[in-house]
Amino acid sequence: MTANGEKLPLPLEGIRVLDLTHIVAGPFCSMIFADMGAEVIKVERPGFGDRSRINTPFKDGANGQKVSVRYLGVNRNKKSVTLDLRDPRCRSAFEKMVKESDILLDNWGPGALRRLGLGYETLSELNPGLIYASITGYGDSDDMQGPYSQWPANNPCVQGMGGWMEITGAHGGAPQMVGDNIGDTVPGVWSALGVMLALEARHKTGKGQHVDMAMYDCMVAHTTSSMPLYQLTGQSSSRARENMFSAQLALKTNDGYAVLAGAGDEEKWVALWQLVGREDLIQDPRYLGKGISGEFYFENIVPAIEEWSQHLSKREVAEQLIEIGYSMGMVQNTADLDQCPHLEARKMFVDCGDTMGGSFRTANTPINLTACPDTPTGPPPLLGQHNRDILCSIGGLTEEQLLGMETDRVV
């Protein structure tokens, strides 16, 4: 709070975002803006809407209703209008909305809006202050074209292309994805940052710009261990045990696994063997981490620790090793997260409703602006829910025009 105890407004109040995105990467980005107070208007296809609306699994409601929980997870606090941008009347209304907006988000692929005559060059003439952010697989700037520029992309593609799958998975096994949509949400966060930086540039100059975000670039930017290692040694990280044992270790417990992050120095190894009742191993330098291979680590050291850890809970193992100086965690599933008292204390879950009168609990935006109100909890919008409010205001349509467009099914 401020010195006098009053709350500051959310930082993006007064900012209007036209959100022409679908699935995850774009909606995740625009959800951050909506959570921070922006008016986010989803511009969707009539009759269909965001493709995530039809993605399984579904939550069932009364009277045969159902809603995709994938859609619910990234679309809270937004509004929805439907426009067929191929129709001249819809295009005209959309252009009027552009004039009254600050940000436009697009993730329909390289040149998708440009082919409709709605690229940055065109829309910036209508609104020179417009910040036009495109999220594509490999970038969408004419002067930064590469051999993959026209390739389609999604979460698995960019995890593989960006180097993540090569270092994820079991020793000797096939490359594996990180299990959730990291290839979408990481670019979503970077795109939100890029837009905010463009807003700051506009505050100084009055001019907007094209923010060209490539999912591939974003994933490569996060190779903060494997890329420096390559630059130093010329060696590519892999799923080999030698690349794993010095940094990470999952220890079996009686209810799952505890995570030891960092093998530790000699003093820590001594303390560990004393804790687990294996003082006999202290005399062997290999058990103090000296001159060992990954094979020795996993075939000898790990089993020796697990003789002790398998009889305790993962929390007990973590707490006891933290006491002697190790950095520890626990391998948790989504049920653990949902019931975590720490996340509850951090207000990391919000219930924004399921659009059918029921509840739906989802992860909150992890930005804590302590002087501002809590994240709003508006439900995701129904398809076209705000057509009349928005199209008959900033869209410039009359009630009669909107009715005619509804009859023609272009909204």
Specify the overall morphology.
Answer: elongated
**Distance between the terminal alpha carbons, to the nearest Å?**
43 Å
**Helical/strand content category:** alpha/beta
Amount of beta strand: 5-15%
Radius of gyration: 26 Å
* Helix fraction by DSSP (H/I, runs of at least 4): 25-40%
Runs with pLDDT <50, length 5+?
A: none
The chain-level mean pLDDT equals 94
What's the tally of helices?
15
Strand order of the largest sheet: 5-2-1-6-7-8
What is the total tally of β strands?
A: 13
Order of helices and strands: EHEEEHEHEHEHHEHHEEHHHEHHEEHH
Features:
6-stranded parallel beta sheet; 15 helices; alpha/beta; elongated; 411 residues; 34% helix
Descriptive notes:
With 411 residues, the protein is α/β, with parallel strands linked by helices. Helix content is 34%, strand content 14%. The chain has 15 helices and 13 strands. The chain has helices at 25-35, 69-72, 88-99, 120-126, 155-161, 182-205, 215-220, 226-233, 266-275, 294-309, 314-323, 334-338, 341-345, 387-391, 399-407; strands at 16-20, 39-44, 58-60, 66-68, 78-82, 103-106, 131-136, 209-214, 249-253, 256-260, 328-330, 349-351, 361-363. Strands 5-2-1-6-7-8 form a six-stranded parallel β-sheet. A three-stranded antiparallel β-sheet has the order 9-10-11. Strands 3-4 form a two-stranded antiparallel sheet. A hairpin with a 5-residue loop joins strand 3 and strand 4. Helix 1 packs across helix 6. The longest helix is centred in the middle third of the chain and has 24 residues, at 182-205. It is elongated.
